[in-house]
């Protein structure tokens, strides 16, 4: 389960993400500029984008390997296919 809550509505927006499974939970702090949200997912909420980003990441690495603090724009640095594959995670 992925639980996303927005903790700051500024720019950048800030989110707290908790990823839970049968082995426990991890906690993450994620930032995202409003422009990044508009560029990546018009028509979806910022929380939906963050959740989709985590589903994308969890398909590629265990929850314990996901950075504890990062900006959404860092994801393509590690996974260049992020922008191309993100729409499938938003459906």
Task: Describe, in short, the structure shown.
With about 90 residues, the chain is an alpha+beta fold. It is built from four helices and four strands; from the N terminus they run βββααβαα.
Category from helices, strands and their pairing: alpha+beta
How many H/I helices? 4
Note the beta-strand portion.
Answer: 25-35%
Overall residue-averaged pLDDT value: 97
Biggest sheet record: 4 strands, mixed
Computed over alpha carbons, the radius of gyration is 12 Å
Strand order of the largest sheet: 1-2-3-4
Q: How many β-strands, per DSSP? A: 4
Globally, the shape reads globular
What does this protein look like?
With 91 residues, the chain is an alpha+beta fold. The chain has one domain. Helix content is 36%, strand content 31%. The chain is built from four helices and four strands. Helix 2 (46-58) packs across helix 4. The longest helix has 13 residues, at 46-58. The relative contact order is 0.20.
